[in-house]
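Whiteboard transcription, Tuesday session. T.W. wrote the structure tokens on the left side:
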């Protein structure tokens, strides 16, 4: 029996696209949003070989809480031999990704189409 996806929330939309679970972060990604997103992220990255795309296109703000969500998703997906891809063009988020080196481990694509078409993300270490 297939389980219905949970309803979207103010900070997160979830949908299936081309065999991937797309997590679309929305609005201000801060500690309040992270509390809302965390359980849904865990759900999407559970099980064997999850295929996940995190889309940061609709965000307005991104702080260390959002960064923790990305690291958490990456760790969970790699632990399950899955794939994680990222869509990001937001200047602040890109700056945070570059400052922490996460952009090397989770290279951001400019569009969802580009992310779905790219080879598996790098799984190296910082």
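and on the right, the sequence the group agreed on:
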């Amino acid at each position: 029996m297939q389980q219905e996806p949970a309803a979207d929330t103010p900070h997160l939309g979830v949908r299936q696209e081309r065999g991937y679970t797309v997590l679309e972060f929305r609005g201000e990604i801060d500690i309040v949003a992270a509390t809302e997103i965390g359980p849904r992220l865990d759900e999407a990255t559970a099980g064997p070989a999850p295929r996940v795309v995190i889309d940061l296109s609709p965000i307005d703000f991104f702080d260390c809480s959002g960064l923790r969500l990305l690291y958490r998703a990456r760790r969970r997906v790699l632990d399950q031999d899955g794939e994680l891809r990222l869509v990001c063009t937001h200047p602040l988020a890109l700056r945070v990704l570059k400052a922490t080196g996460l952009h090397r481990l989770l290279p951001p694509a400019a569009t969802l189409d580009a992310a779905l078409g790219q080879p598996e993300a790098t799984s190296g270490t910082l």
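Someone added at the bottom: The CA atoms of residues 18 and 116 lie 8 Å apart.
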